[in-house]
Design brief:
- It is a single chain.
- By secondary structure, the protein is an alpha/beta fold.
- The protein has a single domain, classed as Alanine racemase (TIM Barrel, Alpha-Beta Barrel), CATH 3.20.20.10.
- It is built from 9 helices and 9 strands.
- Strands 1, 2, 3, 4, 5, 6, 7, 8 and 9 form a 9-stranded parallel beta sheet that branches.
- Strand 3, helix 4 and strand 4 form a beta-alpha-beta unit.
- The longest helix has 21 residues.
- The relative contact order is 0.17.
- The C terminus is likely disordered.
Length: 236
């Protein structure tokens, strides 16, 4: 019998709860972002019906079509992919939280576009915590300076940090990168920069979200464990 989205979602939520309790955290402090890139609207609707409240998308055009079809009354939409400056005018209209701001140029464009529509856009600063050339994100050493500069932009609200660590088969190998992001968040917090709230740490995916929770993640981005592998014929 094929697994359903409902059963997959329940298992993920149970694992989040267990991971939180095991390290003395309240499970309610961790938000599940269901990563729905390339997932058809009908399967996303099934996930919403099963209790998903936050959806993560990587591509602007694909997300726009889904948001138009599914609405935003019962769910929040998160942009979690690499963001080009020329897409800023679209993302501020579509998304509640942008996870992937990694330059002052992009931040200024988002601020400009948010101001034009009378919105204060919530954002996270993406940090290339591993220093990999293939990864997006500001370098760790430059992150505090970027946060200081972004804090001067009136139409952005800096809510925390995000990272994409290297891929390892073992979650324990990823753990140091999660810890490094938490340490960086604490460092920014001690700076007490106006207009900056380090409440959120967006880190952890299907293969390593339990380790991320143990290291302080507040937002976990999980797709495969809910929707199955891309293109898989998972039952609704």
């Amino acid at each position: 019998m094929a697994e359903t989205i409902q059963s997959r979602l329940k298992r993920v939520k149970d694992r989040i709860t267990e991971a939180a309790l095991a390290c003395g955290r309240d499970p309610k402090t961790i938000k599940l972002i269901a990563v729905s890139k390339t997932v058809p609207a009908d399967r996303i609707l099934a996930a919403i019906g099963a209790g998903v409240t936050d959806l993560g998308e990587n591509y602007v055009q694909e997300a726009r079509e889904k948001i138009e079809a599914l609405g935003r009354e019962t769910v929040s939409w998160h942009f979690i992919g690499h963001l080009q400056t020329n897409k800023a005018k679209y993302v501020v209209r579509l998304f509640d939280l942008i996870h992937s701001v990694d330059s002052l140029k992009l931040a200024k464009e988002l601020d400009k576009r948010a101001r034009a529509v009378g919105k204060v856009q919530k954002v996270l600063v993406q940090v290339n915590i591993s220093g990999e050339a293939t990864k997006s994100g500001i370098e760790t050493e430059q992150a505090v300076a970027l946060v200081r500069q972004m804090a001067l932009l009136d139409n952005l609200a800096i809510c925390g940090l995000m990272t994409m660590p290297p891929y390892f088969n073992s979650p324990e190998k990823v753990r140091p990168y999660f810890k490094a992001l938490k340490d960086l968040g604490n460092r920014v917090r001690t700076e007490a920069i106006a207009n900056v709230d380090m409440a959120e740490l967006s880190m952890g995916m299907t293969g390593d979200f339990e380790a991320a929770i143990q290291e302080g993640a507040t937002l976990v981005r999980i797709g495969t464990a809910i929707f199955g592998h891309r293109g898989a014929a998972t039952s609704r």
